[in-house]
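Would you kindly consider the sequence and fold I have copied below?
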Amino acid sequence: MSGGIRLLPALALLIGISAAAALLWTLIAPGLLAPEVSGYDAARMRLLHSTLPRLATALIAGFALSLAGALLQQVLRNPLASPTTLGVSAGAHLALAVAMLFFPVLLGLGRDVVALVGAGLAAALVMALGARRGFSPLTLVLSGLVIGLWSGALAAVLIYLNDRRMVSLFIWGAGSLATQSWEAPLALLWKTGLLALACGFLLRPLTLLELGDEEASALGLKLGRTRFLALALAVGLSALVTSAVGVIGFIGLVAPLLARLLGARRVPALLLSSGLIGALLLLTTDALLQIVAGMFSDLLPTGAVTAIFGSPLLLLLLSRLKIRREAFVRAPPAPPRRGDLRTGFALLCAALAVLLVLALFLGRETGGGWSFGAEMLSLRAPRVFSALAAGAMLAVSGLLLQRLTGNEMASPEVLGVSSGATLGLALGVFLLATPGFAAQLGFAGLGAFAVLAAILISTRRSALAPERVLLVGIALSALVDALVGLMAATGDPRALTILRWMSGSTYGAEASGAALLCGAAVVLILPALLARRWLDLLPLGPETASALGIPVRSARLRLFALAGALSATATLGLGPLSFVGLMAPHLARELGFSRAASQTAAAALTGAGLMVAADWIGRTVVFPWQIPAGLTAALLGAPFLILLLFRRGRT
């Protein structure tokens, strides 16, 4: 039944359709069955001008995003491609946020134009990076994650510096379908409808692409033009939806995967079924949200709620998904010369020393001028050393995860470990009146370990295959971020505290907390250095490592626990948005540190330096305002990582 509909997924689809029908009837029945009244009929007016337009918007947006995801996955032959993972939606969101806050005159040209420019620039950069390595799935997704995280960090900075609009921008950015007329869905319908019809002209070229590049070229297919047109249609669909309702990211990834699990193999069936499944998922989610939240549904972002339902669904069906593993594995680099290592360590230590001096003694005065001295040392030192310790711990945690999973995209931020720590801390803040440092660390640790445990359980049959670990991480990260986002959307003052803490600020650092973080960094990084033999041999595979005397199962569990402890402690001190856990191991590797011990030490120094520099720049660049260190690190570090990806060339 490889080409037909499979029984179990078909049954799940039938249950989903039935549930959607029941929810829709529950939602619209009060307006339809309300007794006729003379004059103003509030129930029917709400049904005709709010509920039904919102449901129509959900159908159109879900179909368009899923169609875009299916196009991206088909043309790039990459099961992880989607408007979110390739940074397309984030680029559109950033462009709209910039235009709204600083260049509102551009919106006169049309929100769609602004969104298309942002999405197009993001997609062009991702494709340029991917072309350097033959459009490999690994490079494309890594580039998309970098672009997406950088765009998200910059948008977060803009929101942070314009807090009067923060709540509305946050809700819109997370995907809000609330509308009070038919204008938005009708405009979205004809625009996305034209692009969807245009996809019909690509059915034959996309079918030929499945034969492989050489065979398709031999049959007369122009590969470059086909890929460009398919990518342009996907970018256009994503940008139009983002312009209308904000970022609803999870639909474009999960709907095409579900379509394949249902048995859709041919291109026409895959594109159509992906769109219909996405429309059903978003419609069901939004209907349930309106029923449960009632009058507060306009304040809750549907995009975040979608991840709450889509993530568990993806995790349940992950074992049935077939992915080519070899496309995600990177060959190990050649070992560097010993002299180069010494020079590299000397340069890293010197750079960190210079950054510490600048961060501790150089700052801005009230009048805007610069001053160099020790007058503010008592206030600056806790912040600087908190950033240093947290950066080092996140870097080593990212290094451990990358070596254990064999996946260079693994990091606490990408795999959801930092998000799990955030959720644990948020629960602690909401459950306890005044949680102390020990209680906060305990809750953060529980959240981080819960995510790691879910990753281990979900991938145990595939021996931690990199592509499955990444998919599980994306799903769990989306789920955790959605839950935290819903907490923030409640308007509770504690939620605002969590939002500000999530930006990675060291503003409230104290001497005692900084000392605890530095002590924790020493205690937790030392075991990683001592485990250098495990870290060198485990990436060779379980059979080889076991033959060389490594207790594979025990070693993996211990190192995963160590990565969770490092991530939870660092997240507690600095928040989850630092991006250091992904960048620092890459930077250390590109500097020539390939053996476990040297790379661990170099990553720790690099992560510490990145966060110290980020804290100092965040305090001075827009003085007297301050940009949180975590956001600054993402803004500074992502371009360096993009440059390194550009320099690699083709493999």
User: Anything to note?
Assistant: Residues 1 and 387 are 56 Å apart (CA to CA). The beta strands are 362-364, 370-372. The first strand starts at residue 362 and ends at 364.
